[in-house]
Write a structure and sequence with these properties.
Blueprint: E1 4-8, H1 12-24, E2 28-32, H2 35-44, E3 49-53, E4 55-56, E5 59-60, H3 61-70, E6 79-84, H4 88-96, E7 101-105, H5 109-120, H6 130-133, E8 139-143, H7 147-158, E9 163-167, H8 170-179, E10 184-188, H9 196-205, E11 213-218, H10 223-231, E12 236-239, H11 244-266, H12 302-310, H13 318-328, H14 338-355, H15 358-382
Parallel strand pairs: 1-2, 1-3, 3-6, 6-7, 8-9, 8-10, 10-11, 11-12
Antiparallel strand pairs: 4-5
Length: about 375
């Protein structure tokens, strides 16, 4: 018998996308666009999982979550929250009121399926036990007061498939850490109003965070600050003036070290050495290979590849998502050019608004629009 999933989201496109993803994975789905519709569905049917948007036209998802937890019939019904990564207060409220987990937009469809299998206790299609096959993404908390840096760091870290959690202040970050575990913290040690080393000292005392990797971010070399940070067990440092890819590699290194330490503690064999010709050095040698993106079935050209690079989604979902957006506009990805890219822009915009907050989606659309214009100009010069 199929596990039943109730999908509650006010976006028709999100509902349709979730239905397609989960139906393909063997789940039955019911779609609701509001709290009222969800309450009606819950009164008439039994469900094994709810995927719940936190902001709905007739209220907040946490209102329904509170109701579910008060009724014996639904008190243990698994709930997976769905909201933008920047919605710190919604995430905290949901987790504190009994949600089982949180999926940030942009969401990874494969991750949603794995968590659905895990939370409904349904084995994977190949019969492997759910706790073996259902791995999780690494969570990275970025604590920085500058929105431009948070955008750049988040974009870079999502390329490795991480769930990026954003905090604009030390207080927000502490509340998030009290509500859920993370695997790595990127901390601006020089944020106004935040004593970086003292904040780390507090974090090291929280349950479950004593061994979390902490990468300290600095604008330059300050020997006194670095000495104080080392004293409270900051694991690594990275200058904010460095190329963002250096930061990405540093996070890979710290996560790899933690994974190796866990494997050693459990008596598991060490990871295989890097392949011949792989980058070497203190940072690059520890970096795991990037997660390969699934094939979308199209032989994409360079313009499509540039579209994928600019869309701001994880490489795990970007190719297939942009392929769907193009085909929805009647454009074949393998023949994408300046004219057809311009034609596909409205469809691409709609798709990005599913996965990104409004500000980030528009920022990405502007970049893609500039790509279409520069491609058209290059085409005109060549004709």
């Amino acid at each position: 018998m199929k596990a039943r999933v109730l999908i509650v989201d006010d976006s028709a496109t999100v509902r349709a996308d979730m239905r397609g993803v989960l139906s393909s994975a063997g789940f039955g789905t019911t779609l609701c666009e509001s709290l009222a519709a969800a309450r009606k569905a819950l009164s008439e049917n039994e469900f094994d999982l709810i995927i719940l948007d936190m902001l709905l036209p007739d209220g907040e998802g946490v209102d329904l979550l509170e109701e579910l937890r008060r009724v014996p019939r639904t008190s243990h019904l698994p709930v997976l929250m769905l909201s933008t990564e920047a919605a710190v207060l919604q995430r905290l409220k949901g987790l504190s009121h009994g949600a089982n987990d949180y999926v940030g937009k942009p969401y990874d469809s494969a991750y949603v399926v794995r968590r659905a299998h895990e939370l409904t206790q349904v084995p994977e299609a190949d019969g492997t036990p759910r706790l073996v096959s259902a791995g999780r993404r690494r969570r990275v908390l970025v604590v920085d007061g500058r929105i431009d840096f948070r955008h750049r760091a988040g974009d870079a870290l999502r390329k490795d498939g991480h769930d990026v959690i954003i905090a604009e202040s030390g207080d927000d970050a502490l509340r998030l850490l009290e509500a859920q575990p993370v695997d790595c913290i990127l901390l601006d040690l020089e944020m106004p109003g935040l004593e970086g080393p003292e904040w780390v000292r507090i974090v090291r005392r929280l349950p479950g965070t004593a061994q979390v990797a902490v990468v300290g971010l600095t604008a330059g070399f300050d020997s006194k600050l670095i000495s104080e940070a080392l004293a409270v067990k900051v694991d690594a440092f990275c200058s904010k003036t460095e190329d963002i890819e250096v930061l990405r590699a540093q996070v890979r290194t710290e996560l790899r070290r933690r994974a190796e330490a866990e494997q050693h503690a459990q008596g598991a064999p060490a990871p295989a050495p890097t392949s011949p010709g792989a980058p070497t050095g203190p940072v690059a040698s520890a970096a795991p290979a990037a997660t390969p993106a699934p094939s979308s079935g199209a032989a994409h050209g360079s313009l499509f590849d540039e579209l994928v690079a600019r869309c701001g989604l994880s490489p795990v979902i970007a190719p297939s998502t942009m392929t769907r957006a193009c085909r929805k506009a009647g454009v074949e990805p393998q023949s994408l050019n300046a004219v057809t890219l311009a034609k596909a822009l409205p469809s691409i915009r709609d798709m990005l608004h599913i996965f990104l907050d409004a500000q980030e989606a528009e920022r990405r659309i502007q970049s893609i629009q500039a790509l279409a214009e520069s491609s058209a100009a290059a085409r005109a010069r060549g004709s």
